[in-house]
Design a protein that fits this description.
Layout lengths: L1 E9 L4 E2 L2 E5 L5 E6 L9 E9 L1 E6 L16 H10 L5 H17 L2 E8 L5 H6 L3 E8 L7 H17 L4 E5 L7 H9 L7 E6 L3 H9 L3 H9 L4 H4 L7 H8 L5 E6 L5 H10 L3 E5 L1 H7 L6 H7 L3 E3 L12 H11 L5 H15 L17 E5 L13 E3 L2
Parallel strand pairs: 1-5, 6-7, 7-8, 8-9, 10-11, 11-12, 12-13
Antiparallel strand pairs: 1-2, 1-3, 3-4, 5-14, 14-15
Helix pairs in contact: 4-5, 13-14
Bound molecules: zinc ion (ZN).
């Protein structure tokens, strides 16, 4: 049996003071109790705050070799072009960087990850990792008449992941890259385990423009970079991109919309009413890296309590650290409390991934992992110099 305490304990649901966490030797929470019921000499004290292990709701482990390779601030479409033109690294380097990224996340107190796979490169690392991974295999491709082929590619990766017993889903990459023929195949596929989805959404204003009238950066990307005729492969809906996606997404299943930088208050509000299990993921450092813009979290907070945090990949981030993401949000939105951000980064992600029986909060019976955050201000806010150490 072990006992831990700190000035503040963020449980993933609330903040406690004068409390002690009691675990067994494997990190399972036996109870939370008042400090006064225990001898000080039996407790390990931390000078700062304790929180549960973090859930990284969105990552692409397989892109880890792209750290510091793509220049910042050029917008999503240029980012996609840059990314596709450097996908030629030696396999041993790709695999090595995947391994290192997995260890980096573990050391940064991350216990579970929603991770994208477009190929099988990261599967073995995920299999042997100490971190829990849900693998989202993205299906995508612009040509409607090749939907079956695109789906088959995703299915092969999915079957390999499932043969390794990895929790996995086939999911749509993004509204702009998935024609309706492919949407139908993706959302009629019954083998996902557990049945959850993750889709890139409204990361750039260009996506809205493309759906409204078929013009803008995405037209240029498809015409000039992919050498297709965008007006042949894509029919603008005259509506916002998210409404196209929601026509196909199953209403009752857990789904994560990733980025949402350009989602409006009205959209988040109306959609959350209708889709009760929809979660909104933010990757603040990646948004700053690519589009140099953050979502308006103050609005988000007014219309949804289902916000998760992701790092996105090392192609658009210099670290895989949820603490860094939290600090970035708090630096730009000082009014949002650490307690709220920890809830986003723990219990919300665990609920989305359907692993909240084990992870996401410091509660009796769970084995959530425990992190220690140094140098918390008296009001609970992070400092620039706050760091994280993994306790369990
Ligand atoms: Zn992503």
């Amino acid at each position: 049996m072990k006992k831990f305490s700190a000035a503040k304990i963020f449980t993933g649901k609330e903040i406690l003071t004068n409390s002690v966490i009691i675990t067994d030797d494997n990190g399972k929470i036996l109870s939370l109790d008042s400090l006064k019921n225990h001898e000080n000499s039996t407790i390990q004290f931390f000078d700062g705050a304790i929180c549960p292990g973090f859930i990284n709701a969105h990552c692409h482990l397989e892109l880890s070799y792209m750290r510091n390779k793509i220049s910042r601030g050029n917008g999503l479409v240029r980012f996609v072009k840059d990314l596709l033109s450097i996908r030629n690294e030696k396999m041993e380097v790709i695999l090595q960087k995947i391994e290192e990224a997995d260890i980096e996340m573990f050391n940064n107190g991350i216990v579970a990850v929603g991770d994208i796979s477009n190929d099988d490169h990261s599967l073995l690392t995920k299999k042997k990792s100490k971190i829990y991974y849900h693998t989202f295999v993205e299906a995508y491709g612009f040509k409607p008449n090749e939907a079956g082929y695109y789906f088959e590619i995703a299915k092969q990766v999915f079957l390999k992941a499932r043969s390794l017993n990895l929790p996995s889903s086939i999911t749509a990459h993004a509204p702009y890259s998935v024609p309706k023929e492919l949407m139908k195949l993706i959302y009629s596929w019954k083998e996902n385990y557990p049945v959850i989805y993750s889709i890139h959404n409204q990361e750039t204003e260009a996506e809205t423009q493309f759906f409204l009238n078929g013009t803008g950066d995405f037209k240029v990307l498809i015409d000039d970079f992919f050498k297709l005729n965008s007006s042949e492969v894509f029919q603008p809906t005259g509506d916002r991109s998210i409404n196209y996606l929601l026509k196909y997404l199953p209403k009752v299943k857990n789904a994560l919309l990733v980025h949402n930088t350009f989602s409006t208050e009205e959209e988040i509000n109306n959609i959350s009413e209708e889709f009760k299990n929809l979660f909104w993921c933010t990757c603040p450092k990646a948004n700053l890296y690519i589009e140099n813009r953050l979502p308006d979290y103050k609005t988000w907070l007014q219309v949804t309590d289902k916000i998760c945090i992701g790092t996105d990949s090392l192609a658009s981030n210099n670290s895989l650290s949820i603490l860094d993401e939290i600090r970035t949000i708090q630096t730009n939105f000082p009014e949002i409390k650490t307690e709220t951000l920890v809830n986003w980064a723990t219990i919300n992600g665990a609920r989305f991934l359907k692993i909240d029986e084990q992870f996401g909060s410091i509660e009796e019976g769970k084995t959530p992992g425990l992190n220690f955050i140094t140098e918390i201000n008296d009001d609970g806010r992070l400092k620039v110099s706050s760091t994280l150490k993994r306790i369990i």
